[in-house]
UniProtKB/TrEMBL annotation:
<keyword id="KW-1003">Cell membrane</keyword>
<dbReference type="GO" id="GO:0005576">
    <property type="term" value="C:extracellular region"/>
</dbReference>
<keyword id="KW-0449">Lipoprotein</keyword>
<dbReference type="GO" id="GO:0009986">
    <property type="term" value="C:cell surface"/>
</dbReference>
<dbReference type="GO" id="GO:0090263">
    <property type="term" value="P:positive regulation of canonical Wnt signaling pathway"/>
</dbReference>
<comment type="function">
    <text>Cell surface proteoglycan.</text>
</comment>
<dbReference type="GO" id="GO:0098552">
    <property type="term" value="C:side of membrane"/>
</dbReference>
<comment type="similarity">
    <text>Belongs to the glypican family.</text>
</comment>
<dbReference type="GO" id="GO:1905475">
    <property type="term" value="P:regulation of protein localization to membrane"/>
</dbReference>
<dbReference type="InterPro" id="IPR001863">
    <property type="entry name" value="Glypican"/>
</dbReference>
<dbReference type="GO" id="GO:0005886">
    <property type="term" value="C:plasma membrane"/>
</dbReference>
<keyword id="KW-0357">Heparan sulfate</keyword>
<keyword id="KW-0325">Glycoprotein</keyword>
<keyword id="KW-0654">Proteoglycan</keyword>
<dbReference type="GO" id="GO:0016477">
    <property type="term" value="P:cell migration"/>
</dbReference>
<dbReference type="InterPro" id="IPR019803">
    <property type="entry name" value="Glypican_CS"/>
</dbReference>
<keyword id="KW-0732">Signal</keyword>
Length: 285
């Protein structure tokens, strides 16, 4: 009554043993795939952790440097500017981590909030208190009045390049883990289990417990077993190429450290531009 290990010669196997063999090959194959995947997942998770730690460190440094700019150079508005600065860097962090937001909206929202402060504390320091309506009016008309010249748009352009590459790398590494987890739990088909039993355990039925299958036979069986996930190969290779491209970009023209550490300088130049054009801005307002 054997279904898999059918031999003309006498056999010491039973149907129950065949079933045990099938359970064994499923368990062994799962353990083998998990062991191989663990090494790859461990490496990718290590990269994700290292990237996030480096990014958070750079972000904290850039935020502290920006806050220090207001404390030293623009003390009259430092206290009120603290919240817009914090929001800007929070938005940048969320963007990198994959939130549905854009660098442009984060930067422009910051400059919208900054304009009433620059107008009332630096350009017209005699103004003691602006009403909420007036402040909101200034905030809403910032893009029309354009008090910061090209510096606000330049900041968007510079940050967008670098932060986009970082965001893509972060998402790509996480996607790699998802793909590995999905393929790791791909079930072995009935045909695969039978082929594995025939290759690995059927010789035991003849007392040949030490014999090993030849490499060609083993590869053919495993190709059949992994046929359902083999079509991922081309896409996985493309995925690896994309990761290489992103890391090269981040090390070259999209350097995250340079982009983040330059935020305070861009803000400073924008404020100086507004101050130099103070009388014209006041007349326009």
């Amino acid at each position: 009554d054997l279904q898999i290990c059918q031999h003309r010669a006498p056999t010491c196997c039973t149907k129950k043993m065949e079933e045990s063999y099938q359970a064994a090959v499923r368990r062994e194959r799962t353990q083998s795939i998990q062991a191989l995947n663990f090494e790859l997942k461990y490496m990718i998770v290590g990269h994700i952790t290292a990237f996030q730690e480096a990014f958070e460190s750079l972000l904290r440094f850039a935020e502290n440097r920006t806050s220090a700019l207001f404390e030293t150079a623009y003390r009259p508005m430092a206290k009120e500017a603290a919240e817009p600065v914090k929001e800007l860097f929070t938005d940048i962090s969320l963007y990198i981590l994959g939130a549905e937001t854009t660098v442009e909206s984060a930067v422009l929202r910051f400059f919208d909030s900054l304009f009433p402060l620059v107008y009332s504390r630096l350009i017209n320091p005699g103004i003691t208190d602006l009403s909420e309506d007036y402040t909101e009016c200034l905030r809403l008309t910032r893009q029309d009045i354009n008090p910061f010249g090209h510096y606000s748009k330049n900041m968007v352009t510079e940050l967008s390049k670098s932060l986009w590459a970082s965001r893509m790398l972060s998402q790509a590494l996480s996607l790699g883990i998802e793909v590995i987890n999905t393929t790791e739990h791909a079930a072995l088909t009935k045909e695969c289990s039978r082929a594995l039993v025939k290759m690995q355990y059927c010789p035991h039925c003849q007392g040949l417990t030490l014999i090993r299958p030849c490499v060609g036979y083993c590869l053919n069986v495993m190709r059949g077993c992994l046929a359902s996930v083999s079509e991922l190969d081309a896409q996985w290779r493309e995925f690896i190429s994309t990761l290489e491209y992103l890391t090269n970009e981040m090390a070259a023209s999209h350097d995250l450290e340079i982009a983040l550490s330059g935020i305070w300088s861009s803000i400073n130049e924008a404020i100086l531009h507004a101050q130099l054009n103070g009388p014209q801005l006041s007349a326009t307002v």
